[in-house]
Amino acid sequence: MENFSLILAIVVVTALAFDFTNGFHDTANAMATTISTGALKPKVAVAMSAVLNLVGAFLSVEVANTISKGLVDETGIRPEVIFAALVGAILWNLLTWLVGLPSSSSHALMGGLIGATIASAGTGAVHGDVLVTKVLLPAVAAPIVAGVAAMLATRLSYTLGRKAEGKAAAKGYRTGQIASAGLVSLAHGTNDAQKTMGIITLALVAGGAVAPDSDPPTWVILSAGMAIALGTYLGGWRIIRTMGKGLTELQPQQGFAAQTSAATVILASSHLGFSLSTTHSVSGSVMGAGLGRKGGVVRWSTATRMFVAWGLTLPAAALVGALAESVTGLGDWGTAVVAAFLIASSAAIWKISRREVVDASNVNDTEEPAGVVTTAIAAVAPPPAGSLADDLTATIPSPAPAPAPEPVAPAVPPAAAV
After folding, report:
1. Three-state SS for 126?
2. DSSP code of residue 125
3. Is the pLDDT assigned to residue 290 strictly greater than 70?
4. In total, how many domains does the chain have?
């Protein structure tokens, strides 16, 4: 590989660092519901997800080509622009991980790339039609489609399993949930790992290491797959807690419906080359599954914070990417300053996260408040079948027995008159 300069090497290493953060940031997408319902133990779940993410990275390159060939004009991009884009994406990933919000790593990456590209080459270097059709529209449609599908699938599952024996049905759904979680992990590898492949390939083209319009080299596919798998194995426990317990309480039927719906949407988008957010798809399916069960509710306070994070992801990452590009454009010393800022900020976020550790031992513990809407819905929800008699017994006490009459002393006859 000719012309593999120092800055290009820095960009590749930074891209793999982003891929690593993408892995632990998005572990919740595949395994949060499986862990929350008890279908798999936390450590087993993340190990399984890591392996399948690696396998999925080798199944397609359509999304990688969307990033490297379609979103921006690759002929006017310098390696420093790619580096600045990655800085914006990594910092947004770490900040949202710190507060436990499942935002989109994909949109963070694309936002950083768009902001850095505009700062470097102007708005004309961004292909607006690709941005709209393959990024923005899927971002809106994915959670809606996945949510509706999960809600219908949940209702169908409860209807078909109404007469099934309780323990046997729960065991069957847990088995199905494990299979569907594996499918989501595989789908995540085919979609999210490819985004890092695309960004590295774009950097290689910008640095003159590969020819324009090239597919990702094999070493890029392998390294990106390994990085996202390692990040997945470490587990993004904070976001797993939010996705599994913070949005709604899921039963095995709901978990199975949510993951199957999300996997279908993600795999279809990967086949079409849409740079879809797996976070949006899975979050939408989890909320849909929560609403699909009679009496089920969604914690809208958590959902609202999540929606706000989704809306801020693209512009926030774009702003940081643009600022980073303006500094790297000053020369090698500017690139060094941005690199030092990225390392220092990442270390500070990690240190703050140690104040309240979330790991495999406490990931299913949550103190998320129910909120006004959830409390009101739960108050008027009908009781489950078979619990009416128990509720009446508990709320209407039986009458207390009447007190025994006090003993009456026998009458003493009056003394006889003398």
Report:
1. strand
2. G
3. yes
4. 1
